[in-house]
Each structure stands twice: as C-alpha cells, then as structure tokens.
C-alpha cells in the first residue's frame, strides 16, 4: 500500500476512536482538635484540590491527550482516610459533600457521604455520576467541600482524600502520526 493511502486510512480509522484512562488526585488537610463548642467545620481545605489542571498530569501526557481531546469525564472513586495519627476515625463527621467548580460552570455535587462509623479510618464516598468534561476542559477546576460535624477529633488529624477520575478522550496521537506521514 502506498504511504499516502496508508496514512489516509490510519487517519480515517482514528477519527472515531477513543481512549479511556484514569487520573488520580490526592490531597491532605489537617483538622485541629478542639472542644465540641469550638468545632464548627464548614469545609475541608484540601491541598491539590484547588486549581486542578488535568492537562499537566502524567496520565494526560502518557496518552498524548490535551484538554481539547476530552469527550467525557467522571469521578469514579473518592476516599477519605485518617493518615495521622493511626487508630483515629472520622466519627465526628455527620456529612461531607464534595463539589466541582470551574469558571463559567455551575457548582455541581460529585460525591457525598453521611455515614462515618466508629473505629473506621477510611470512608468511600457515593458518586453522583456528574459529567465533568466541561470542568476538566475549563481553564481551571477545583473540588470544594461542605462539612457538617457533630464534634471534633480528640487530637489533630491529617486527612488524605484521594479522587479517581475516568477520562474518555479522542485518540489524537494516531491522527497526528497519520498527518505527519502524508506528503
């Protein structure tokens, strides 16, 4: 097959192809111990969850994907755990909700949890299935939280929150290769 025809064939077959991959973001925050009357958590300020740029992630780079290639994105897993000190739980929390925000987009609920059992240091959140492509492709994206607490931890706690996103994007690398092979 002649190189120009092969390149055209590769380009045409790649136009509708997509690749699906995951992007993991983790962040930490500290919840200070306090008397119950003093403990009025309204939000968790989780480092690395403000001004997220998916395009700068290793996962996007590995796939050869830019934000313009994104067709769909969803939060598929979100966990919160007590990282330090060991043996602590999250039972002082009543409800935690995570929202996604981007310029030009409405704030949207992406995950929530209202069950924080005694003696459990890691909690998995319920996902809402919100389509995140408009947020992922915006100039910036943040994940914010709303917290309702029924007390405070006995000691300062370092919490780690890990979010896993599933991203579907067009296969641009094959298309770029086909264009370069065309004389």
Q: Which series of helices and strands comes N to C?
A: HEHEEEEEHEEH
First-to-last CA distance: 15 Å
Overall strand count: 8
Compute the gyration radius: what is it? 21 Å
The description of the largest β-sheet is:
4 strands, antiparallel
Can you offer a commentary on this structure?
This protein has helices at residues 3-14, 58-63, 133-136, 172-181, and strands at residues 18-31, 70-84, 93-101, 108-113, 122-124, 126-127, 142-149, 157-170. It is α+β, with helices and mostly antiparallel strands. The protein has a four-stranded antiparallel beta sheet with strand order 1-8-2-5. The radius of gyration is 21 Å and the shape is elongated.
Quick synopsis:
The protein is α+β, with helices and mostly antiparallel strands and 183 residues long. The protein contains 4 helices and 8 strands.
How is this fold's topology laid out?
Elements: H1 3-14, E1 18-31, H2 58-63, E2 70-84, E3 93-101, E4 108-113, E5 122-124, E6 126-127, H3 133-136, E7 142-149, E8 157-170, H4 172-181
Antiparallel strand pairs: 1-8, 2-5, 2-8, 3-4, 3-7, 4-6
Notable features of this structure?
single chain, 183 residues, alpha+beta, 8 strands, elongated
């Amino acid at each position: 097959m002649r190189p120009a025809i092969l390149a055209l064939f590769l380009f045409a077959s790649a136009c509708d192809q997509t690749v699906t991959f995951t992007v993991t973001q983790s962040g930490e925050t500290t919840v200070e111990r306090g008397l119950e009357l003093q403990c009025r958590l309204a939000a968790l300020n989780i480092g690395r969850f403000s001004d997220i740029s998916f395009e700068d992630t290793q996962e996007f780079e590995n796939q050869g994907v830019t934000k313009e290639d994104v067709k769909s994105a969803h939060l598929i897993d979100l966990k919160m755990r007590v990282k330090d000190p060991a043996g602590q739980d999250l039972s002082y929390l009543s409800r935690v909700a995570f929202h996604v925000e981007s310029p030009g987009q409405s704030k949207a609920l992406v995950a929530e949890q209202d069950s924080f059992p005694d003696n459990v240091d890691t909690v998995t959140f319920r996902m809402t299935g919100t389509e995140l492509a408009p947020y992922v492709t915006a100039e910036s994206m943040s994940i914010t939280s709303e917290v309702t607490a029924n007390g405070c931890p006995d000691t300062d706690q370092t919490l780690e929150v890990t979010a896993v996103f599933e991203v579907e994007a067009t296969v641009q690398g094959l298309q770029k290769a086909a264009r370069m092979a065309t004389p």
